[in-house]
Amino acid sequence: MPALAPPHPSVPPDQEAPARVLQRFRQVFTAARAHYQQVEKQVGIGGAQVWALGVIASQPGLGVGSLARAMHVHQSTASNLVRALTERNLVAAAREGSDKRAVQLRLLPAGLALLAQVPGPFTGLLPQALDQLDADTLARLQADLTTLIHAMGMADDAPALPIAQL
Description:
Number of strands: 2
Order of helices and strands: HHHHEEHHH
Mean pLDDT: 85
Strand content: under 5%
CATH topology of the domain at 26-123: Arc Repressor Mutant, subunit A
Low-confidence stretches: none
Oligomer: single chain
CATH class of the domain at 26-123: Mainly Alpha
């Protein structure tokens, strides 16, 4: 990681720290957005849909609730992703097994072909990077981001969309 430039002599350090942190947030979101834009340009669907396809490919037969948990999104968000994927004939949703209320998801040949064209991780850069961090770093990030969310006046359970949909 490159070293940060020293604060400008005319700006007190306490005013410089928030600007440096904001710059890091911008870098993270710019990189994530650029990855998702590259994916969409190359394969024609959004990053969240690609992530959903990747999860379904790795766990054939999973349900919408399991997809939501795997992607860390609300079930209604996962349902919307599945609807878009089924409308594009990339995923099949069938009621199989003993519980006919539950829907099982499977990739169709077009979905498999599309995944073969996807550049980079199906999950996106940020989830992949977070998966690579150690437990202590993740715990610090979670605690610090929780503090930030509270400073913004938001509740812990405030709605959150996948970054690919921002």
